[in-house]
């Protein structure tokens, strides 16, 4: 695996957190769990994983800023660079014993994501990318988005709002427009992996309305470096704001047209 010093630091941090999470996953019934809100859990595992990542990344780059799901944001002495981290994307899957969750780490430079890692410890799949260097899986497999050009052959992914979130009616309208024209829609509960799977050609596209920057930052670069397109759900908006559409280039216009109504 060849990459920058920053990327290698990110991969090391992701693997370190992954080892800790796998250990906790084997004993998930014993985790100390508190509830942040309906369907939105935080566990001892999340917090420990973020501590390990933060220790590794800021130990190696102490001047960089920080934005983490569990510990929030902090400015660094270098105002142009910031780590954006989700230590456990797919927490609900994790807590229910479902092996579909990931560590997501992105490096932002002057407002743009330039390095990205999404690590799936349960399957030992390391998705990574650097701006201008392509998207890769593990050591040497280069990834490309799918080449499908027909909506009826395409499979899309999304996140269905849970609890009392206000975006559920709009999502149901999306599904009503999209599902009759496609080969299927999947809701797997881990946005970072949904985007990584678009980059790998496993999904043809993905959309969601209500996310945070740490959910999508790394995945956005993976898709772009794999030849796909990513835009904010509202045309002209920033996908890092948490509402986005990602797709292969051949289906993007049709897919985005359906979702945007």
Structural account:
- The protein has 261 residues and is of the alpha+beta class.
- The protein has 2 domains: 5-143, Fructose-1,6-Bisphosphatase, Chain A, domain 1, CATH 3.30.540.10; 151-260, 3-Layer(aba) Sandwich (D-Maltodextrin-Binding Protein, domain 2), CATH 3.40.190.
- Helices cover 33% and strands 28% of the residues.
- The protein has 7 helices and 15 strands.
- It has helices at residues 5-25, 44-60, 91-95, 168-178, 191-199, 213-225, 252-260, and strands at 33-37, 40-43, 65-68, 72-74, 81-89, 102-109, 112-120, 125-130, 135-137, 141-143, 155-158, 184-186, 205-208, 229-232, 244-247.
- The chain has an 8-stranded mixed β-sheet, with helices on both faces.
- A hairpin with a 2-residue loop joins strand 1 and strand 2.
- Helix 1 packs antiparallel against helix 2 (44-60) and helix 5 runs parallel beside helix 6 (213-225).
- The protein is globular.
- The termini are far apart.
- The mean pLDDT is 94.
């Amino acid at each position: 695996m060849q990459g920058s010093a920053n990327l290698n630091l990110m991969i090391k941090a992701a693997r370190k957190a992954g080892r800790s999470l796998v250990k906790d996953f084997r004993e998930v019934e014993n985790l100390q769990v508190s509830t942040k809100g309906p369907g939105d859990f935080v566990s001892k595992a999340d917090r420990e994983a973020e501590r390990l990542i933060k220790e590794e990344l800021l130990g190696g780059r102490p001047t960089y800023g920080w934005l983490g799901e569990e510990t929030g944001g902090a400015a660094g002495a270098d105002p142009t660079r910031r780590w954006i981290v989700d230590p456990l994307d797919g927490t609900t899957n994790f807590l229910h014993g479902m092996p579909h969750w990931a560590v997501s780490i992105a490096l932002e430079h002057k407002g743009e994501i330039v390095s990205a890692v999404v690590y799936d410890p349960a399957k030992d799949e390391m998705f990574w990318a650097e701006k201008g260097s392509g998207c890769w899986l593990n050591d040497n497999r280069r990834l490309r988005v799918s080449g499908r050009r027909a909506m009826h052959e395409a499979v899309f992914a999304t996140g269905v709002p849970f609890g009392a979130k206000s975006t559920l009616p709009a999502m149901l309208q999306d599904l009503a427009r999209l599902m009759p024209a496609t080969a299927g829609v999947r809701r797997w509960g881990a946005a970072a992996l949904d985007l990584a799977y678009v980059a790998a050609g496993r999904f043809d596209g993905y959309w969601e309305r209500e996310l945070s920057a740490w959910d999508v930052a790394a995945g956005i670069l993976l898709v772009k470096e794999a030849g796909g397109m990513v835009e904010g759900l509202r045309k002209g908006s920033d996908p890092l704001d948490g509402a986005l559409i990602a797709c292969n280039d051949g289906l993007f216009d049709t897919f985005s047209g359906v979702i945007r109504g």
